[in-house]
Amino acid sequence: MIDRKVVTLNGCDLVDDVRSPGSPTPRRLVMLSQEQNDLLTRVGPGTPGGEMLRRYWLPIALVQELPPQEGGDPPAPVPLRILGEDLVLFRDQQGRPGLIGIHCAHRGADLSYGRVEDGGLRCLYHGWLYDVHGRCLEQPGEPAGSTFYERVRQPSYACREAAGVFFACFGPGEPPLLPDYELFHVPDEHRWIHKYYHECSYLQGNEGNLDPTHPFFLHRFLSGSRSLQSRVPINDQRRTPAYDTRVHAPRVHAEEMPFGVRMYAFYDTSPEWTDVRTSCFVMPLTCAVGGGPVPPGDGYLMNWHVPIDDTHHWRFSMAFKRTGPIDRAHARERASITTADYRFPRNPNNRYLQDREEQKTDTFSGMGPIFVVHDSYATETAGPIQDRTREHLGAVDRGVSLERRMLLHAIRDVQEGRDPPHVMRRPEDNVQLEGLGVTEHRIPAGLTWPQYRREWAGDLAAR
Ligand code: FES
Ligand SMILES: [Fe+2]
Questions:
Q1: Which of 56, 78, 192, 237 is 20 to 30 Å from 84 by CA-CA measure?
Q2: Rounded to the nearest whole angstrom, what is the distance from the C-alpha of residue 396 to the centroid of ligand 2?
Q3: How do residues 295-348 score in pLDDT, each as one tens digit?
Q4: According to the CATH classification, is domain 58-169 in 2.102.10.10?
Q5: Is 103 close to ligand 1, i.e. is its CB under 6 Å away?
Q6: What was the ipTM of the complex prediction?
Q7: 129 lines ligand 1 (CB under 6 A)
C-alpha cells in the first residue's frame, strides 16, 4: 500500500509518495479547497487569478477575423469578450490594430457597430471618435474650443499580431516581451491555426492537455473502425496504437521548468522497449502537445485556453511543422469541424450527437472521429467550473497537480508585486524556452526516468 504524507505549503495541500523517498518528482497537490478553486478559475478584473492572467500575452482572435486591408474598405470591427471584459478589436485606416472597451465612454453604445474613419473608430450614436490607443480624438456636439475630449479615454490594451493571431496583454504598465516560441520562426505555410469555442472554464480545458492516459480511452478507435480508415493518416500512425492502460499503467513524471511544467509519460509497450512522450504546460494557460496536422517529432501543437469569462473559453490551436508545409488536406479537415463562428456542431445541447451504434463498432466514445470534439465532451461535462474539492487526482495526474501549484504561486507573486514565472522583460531573458517542446523516443525497457533525462538531455533541451 502506498503511504502518503500530506504537506501544506503556502496554503496548498501537497502529498508526497513516501514509497519513493528522494524521488525528484515534485510533490503533488491532491485536492483543492473551494477558495483555491476560485482563485484559479475567477478571471474578471480585480480577481487574484484574473490579475495574474493579465500579466501575460494571450491570443484573442485570428488575423483572418480582421484581415489587413489591401485597398478598399477597412475590415469590420470585431466584438470580443475576453477575461470577462467586453472589447472591440479594429484596424484603423493605416492597418494598425487596436483593442479598446466596447462601450463608448460617452453613453455606452456598442462601438463594434461603429465606422472606421478619420484616424479611428467613430461611435454611431453621437460620433465620438477613438484611436487605437483609446484616446478620444473628437467629440462632435461639444462647444467649440472644448478640451473635454482630452480627459476622456476608452479602456485600451496592448495588441499585436504574430503567426496569424492577435495577441493582447491586459496588464498594467509596460507589457512584457512576447515569448519567443519556435512556432513564430517557421514560414506561414508550415503553420496551422484555428480556434474552438468551449462552454467551460479555461482551466479544465487546459488541464485536458495535461493528461497522458485519456487518449487510450476517450480517443480510441475500435478494431476495424470505419472512421479511422477515412481519416487523413498523420497522427494515427503513432507508435503505440495498441497500448492499453488497463494492462500497463504508464509511468508519469512531471518537473518544474522556467516556463511551466514538463511532463513525461513512459509507456512500457513491450518487454524490449518503452515509448516515452514528453509534453509541456506553459504558463499560464497553454500546453505544447503532440497532435494537430503534424507528424510526431516534426513540430508540435500549442493549445492556448483563453477565458472568455469564468465559464467559457476559446481554445486557440497552433501547430507547426519544422521540415515543410502543413498537409493542407488535413488542415482543412480539422478546420471544417467547426461552424463559421468556430463552434462545434456537436455540443452539450445535443449530447454531442452521441451514437450508441457507432460506439459498438467504430469509436469508443460514439462521438465521431474528431479528438477535439471528444475533448470538449470530457471537459465541458465536468460543469461550467469543475468542483475540484470533490476530485481525486491519481499518480497519472502529476502534471495537473504541479500546474495548479505553479498557478497558485504565480497568483501570490502578483499579489506581492512580483512578475510571475514566464513573464520576461529583457531580451536576454527571452531564452527561457529551452526544454519547451514535445518529444517521442523509443528507449530500452527498464530505463528509469533520471536515466532517460540524462541520456536524452541534448534532445530534450533542444526541443
Ligand atoms: S454613446 Fe458614443 S458618441 Fe455618444
Ligand atoms: Fe484529448
A1: 192
A2: 15
A3: 778 899 999 999 999 999 999 999 999 999 998 888 888 888 999 999 999 999
A4: yes
A5: no
A6: 0.98
A7: no
